[in-house]
């Protein structure tokens, strides 16, 4: 059963033993040889497919082009055979590989760019699929097989999600990737079969190097939003490398009097209860996460589904002339982070960046209500955002925090936990309409929960424009045999764009 670890700040005089530090306890979970359950293996396969899908759709977006060019500027390091970059062949005459930390960087940006892969929300927010690029890159570089890769990914998900359950970062304006640096380091350690001492040092350094402010997700959101988790993955790879060479890290990183909890989180009197699997307990956390049907912030998923339902039932809702106001009563997070409670004028600006618009629930609800759906490219197009009738409707939409929806957002009961809310629409003629939704249709408790077929369909839809059909089939056949894959087959666990899709010569130039 799960063991809850009480984590508090200790003074230097207390000399907290290493074995009692959270970084060490995380390392112990990583070293536990317990087998990964079949249902967890199946979900890991689903999420690798999901990551490949959203990466395929991003291959020619500016952040990916830049990150890929940076990665290609660095040769394969001498300690292994290198790692593949999404979109490029890893074997054959035209093979393009790089050092694992740079593959983690390029592929992490590709996965994160569209904000379209899996999510887990509790005390903190997370996209645990961000663990896959760095762990896969190290697996390919070191010659790990599919079984080892499964162990690494299951561990990465487990550690990040357990930290997310217990430790809130955003309240202190710390970006959520501060939980990803430690989890990716732990996952890499499990993949490689490292000892607890080495993993604990990498976990501590993974945290120390990935704490940053949430300004990356505030106001006019920049392209760094896609780079932040990729940076955490890259730092995790480098932290493991240093730890394997015997280099140590700040200690205790969580509990020290000048550590993360004391100075970046709840302060010197703070304490957290972190749940981790007991020895011999399978790592099942991935089963509690959920992916996205729509390319938008996760709190927008249910609202898009409600909007398209309302559009089917009441087509007149698309016309702003008949609408007096629309209020989305929702959770604290949705209101203050992607709603009008953020007080970000950019969330109502037709000229705002894509990264800003996918964090604006008033914009998203307006477009979904008019279009009866959502598209990962078309719904963000400048012409779509600036359409006069959309702008008029958009500016009539506000959010409000509802204590009950906030309570359900934080509920530990999976049957009660909710990410939606209640919409109240006031019409110009004085009538009104009220409806609500708790979870997205694709959520495990939603109207149409995602299963393997949905993941494959999402992959085919997003990869179809850039991958040949033979490449799509090759990847799907390979990934669905994940635990049986040889080291050579793991090195093929990527996607290769069809000829002419990627123009490497057109990439922007930089320092490297």
Describe this structure in words.
- It is built from 20 helices and ten strands.
- With 512 residues, the protein is of the alpha+beta class.
- The protein folds into two domains: 286 residues, 2-methylcitrate dehydratase PrpD; 140 residues, 60s Ribosomal Protein L30, Chain: A.
- Strand 9 and strand 10 form a beta hairpin.
- Helix 14 packs across helix 16.
- It holds the Pfam family MmgE_PrpD_C.
- Belongs to the PrpD family.
- InterPro entries: MmgE/PrpD_sf, MmgE/PrpD_sf_1, MmgE/PrpD_sf_2, MmgE_PrpD, MmgE_PrpD_C, MmgE_PrpD_N.
- This is MmgE/PrpD family protein.
Q: What is the name of the CATH class of the largest domain?
A: Mainly Alpha
Number of domains: 2
Mean pLDDT equals 95
Uncertain runs are none
Number of helices: 20
User: How many β-strand runs?
Assistant: 10
The largest sheet is: 4 strands, mixed
Give the SSE string.
Answer: EHHHEEHEEHHHHHHEHEHHHHHEHEEHHH
């Amino acid at each position: 059963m799960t063991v809850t670890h009480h984590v508090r700040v200790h003074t230097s005089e207390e000399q907290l033993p290493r074995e009692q530090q959270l970084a060490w306890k995380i390392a112990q979970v990583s070293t536990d040889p317990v087998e990964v359950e079949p249902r967890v293996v199946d979900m890991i396969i689903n999420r690798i497919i999901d990551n490949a899908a959203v990466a395929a759709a991003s291959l020619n977006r500016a952040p990916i082009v830049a990150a890929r060019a940076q990665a290609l500027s660095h040769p394969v390091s001498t300690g292994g055979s290198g790692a593949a970059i999404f979109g490029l062949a890893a074997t054959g005459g035209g093979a393009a590989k790089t050092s694992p930390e740079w593959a983690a960087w390029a592929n992490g940006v590709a996965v994160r760019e569209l904000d379209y892969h899996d999510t887990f929300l509790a005390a903190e927010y997370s996209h645990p699929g961000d663990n896959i690029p760095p762990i896969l890159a190290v697996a390919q570089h070191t010659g790990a097989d599919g079984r080892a890769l499964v162990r690494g990914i299951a561990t990465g998900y487990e550690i990040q999600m357990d930290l997310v359950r217990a430790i809130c970062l955003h309240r202190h304006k710390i970006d959520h990737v501060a939980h990803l640096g430690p989890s990716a380091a732990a996952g890499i350690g499990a993949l490689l079969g490292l000892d607890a001492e080495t993993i604990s040092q990498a976990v501590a350094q993974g945290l120390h190097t990935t704490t940053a402010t949430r300004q990356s997700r505030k106001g006019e959101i920049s392209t760094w939003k896609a780079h932040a988790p990729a940076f955490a993955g890259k730092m995790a790879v480098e932290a493991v490398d240093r730890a394997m060479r015997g280099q140590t890290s700040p200690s205790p990183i969580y509990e020290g009097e000048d550590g993360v909890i004391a100075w970046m989180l709840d302060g010197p009197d703070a304490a957290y209860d972190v749940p981790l699997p007991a020895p011999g307990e399978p790592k099942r956390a991935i089963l509690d996460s959920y992916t996205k049907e729509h390319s938008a912030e996760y709190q927008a998923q249910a609202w898009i589904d409600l909007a398209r339902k309302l559009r089917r039932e009441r087509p007149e809702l698309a016309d702003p002339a008949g609408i007096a106001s629309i209020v989305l009563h929702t959770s604290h997070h949705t209101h203050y982070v992607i709603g009008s409670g953020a007080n970000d004028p950019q969330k109502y600006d037709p000229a705002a960046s894509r990264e800003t618009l996918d964090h604006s629930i008033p914009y998203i609800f307006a477009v979904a209500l008019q279009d009866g759906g959502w598209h990962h490219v078309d719904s963000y197009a400048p012409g779509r955002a600036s359409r006069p009738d959309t702008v008029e409707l958009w500016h009539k939409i506000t959010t409000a925090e509802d204590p009950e929806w906030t309570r359900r957002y934080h509920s530990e009961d999976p049957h009660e936990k909710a990410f939606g809310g209640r919409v109240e629409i006031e019409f110009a003629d004085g009538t009104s309409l009220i409806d609500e939704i708790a979870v997205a249709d694709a959520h495990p408790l939603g109207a149409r929960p995602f299963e393997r077929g949905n993941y494959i369909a999402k992959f085919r839809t997003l990869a179809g424009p850039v991958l040949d059909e033979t490449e799509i089939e090759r990847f799907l056949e390979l990934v669905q045999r994940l635990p049986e894959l040889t080291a050579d087959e793991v090195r093929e666990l990527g996607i290769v764009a069809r000829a002419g899709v990627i123009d490497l010569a057109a990439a922007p130039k930089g320092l490297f």
